[in-house]
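Q: What structure does this chain adopt?
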Amino acid sequence: MQFTELTAKEYKAYMANTPNMSHYFQMAENIANREEEKSPVVLLGVKENGKVIAASLFSKIPTFGSYMYYSNRGPVLDTTNTALIRFYFQSLDKYLKQHQCLSVKIDPYWIYRTYDKDVNPKTEGNDELVQLMQSLGYVHGGFTTGYSHTQVRWMSVLYLENETPQTLMKQFDSQRKRNIKKAQKFGVKVRLLQEEEIDIFLSLYRETEERTGFIARDDDYFRRFKRHYGSKAIMPLAYIDLDEHIADLTAEQLDLESRHDKMMLTDNKSDKQLKKLSELDEQLKKLQQNILDMNELKKTDGNILNLASGMFFENNFEINYFSGGSSNKYSQFMGPYAMHWFMINYCFEHHFNRYNFYGVSGDFTENGEDYGVYRFKRGFNAQIEELVGDFTKTINKPKETLYKTVTKAGIGVRKIKNIITKNK
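A:
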């Protein structure tokens, strides 16, 4: 085996074809994205007989005259191959010592344990993997819960292998089934936004952010992803065309009126027929009011109402739901349900076996900060995956100790720069 820097072409080919679990942060499209954020990138991998068998994108974050190397969801390799993991990280140590590394951090996309939708364990914890990393000198960040300011450790995933849209729908809870059917009855449509339409997504995202009080990323963060990932960053928009919806309601009204009129022509109506007439009268009354309401909504808000949008990432491993937002004003149209059902069907059409709803906090009690989010995803029969967590290692111990000392002491920037110069 040979540890080496990979070319962008080699790296892209590996990530596009690897059967190993891989994340969109490790896609080749993220190279330019990281570099635009002023973080130099290095692609480090292992080859065997000329073939790449392990790879990772590392960002080099300038720190105290050196670099903190950070692999966001890497390396991507066969986690059952202990010899490969050991070789990768032992070789990485040697490389980092020669390339101005202060410390290194990884939060790999490696499974620790899986659970069913009710958080009953399905597999044993992969303690051997954690212990292997610790034996290589890495400090484990622990089995944390809650939302980290780095990366989530718990995910909610829908498994699609050997399923169809029909068999999958049967596994949803009654609320998910009902709300998807409601969206379909309303005539909610979904289309994919182009890069120049990203403001539509951002508007719905910011509205949700304001409503929930959860502040995440600025607009430029999302714009960069869409710009660099192109078609691999998918932005579905659930919307309703009120003209079409009103036309459908009007057609339904005419049908009910026709049925009502036919029943009225019957002499000596039975109790059953009278009850049915009463039900039709009530349906017509509600339908007429609905048509009036929709016409009024069209006057004030326009013909096209944007209901929900999201940003999803596509790699060769899965479809991953990154972020989304919806309009609370139009919540009756069930836009988020239409959007997710559209993207689940996108998975089937494009032969993906995983639909990743992505982050949950790991606190599945009713007091959990995201209990509502967990329940929403659980209703789709999404299973829970727990990742191994973060690992860090100091490479230049004397300089790392000095760095921590001066930052803790609050020494001024100019003095720090002088110390850095002396210790290069």
